[in-house]
Amino acid sequence: xxxxxxxxxxxxxxxxxxxxxxxxxxxxxxxxxxxxxxxxxxxxxxxxxxxxxxxxxxxxxxxxxxxxxxxxxxxxxxxxxxxxxxxxxxxxxxxxxxxxxxxxxxxxxxxxxxxxxxxxxxxxxxxxxxxxxxxxxxxxxxxxxxxxxxxxxxxxxxxxxxxxxxxxxxxxxxxxxxxxxxxxxxxxxxxxxxxxxxxxxxxxxxxxxxxxxxxxxxxxxxxxxxxxxxxxxxxxxxxxxxxxxxxxxxxxxxxxxxxxxxxxxxxxxxxxxxxxxxxxxxxxxxxxx
Length: 289
Hints:
The protein is of the alpha+beta class. It is built from twelve helices and seven strands.
């Protein structure tokens, strides 16, 4: 089993302690997905967000969360029913991690859980002789956040993907135009106190670079669900462009870069990040469906 995990780790070019830890976290994420694929989970839910772009579509940054959404609203859905299966899947590969549901302080359609395990212990499990093992303190933790939305917006389309590591399995995801719609909604509406989630903007540029069109209808439905668009309003491309232009004009690019830099690798160049970059490439490349 250690040989298989070492082969997975060897697929990463890790140049720092942070990149090594991110690689191990991604291996943990893939094993979680494998475990969920052995149940009926992907008959009811889909994998989306930054980790979906990373694991399924090879987005060029790491992602620390696993985001899921039901395909249809189901208020009584209980994510905890899958926790034992997740732990069993991890333990089969030598990862002994605790999983706990986050208690909600306010009413929300999101269920959140956290997986935690000792970094040094799990690195030793994968690669006992790796010199970077010694760089982690004995209490350093591997942490993965899992979130499930049980009240999804309408207008989404889905597809199945087959992944090969650690063994072949399948997951259901949003299509790329719907993933792009979710990312644009996050850019426009994410409430993250006074901070900026630069990872959303990084993913936005990546999706543009791949010439992915955005589902205008799914974007519209997301904006309506969160009260950012009236129920009887329609969203057209010019409306969306204006919303994005205003958002870029207000963006604190220094904060955005600070957020995403640990996930983007040492060689990624942020020097061009500016209102001018985002607005001009949006005008030139944004396509809608």
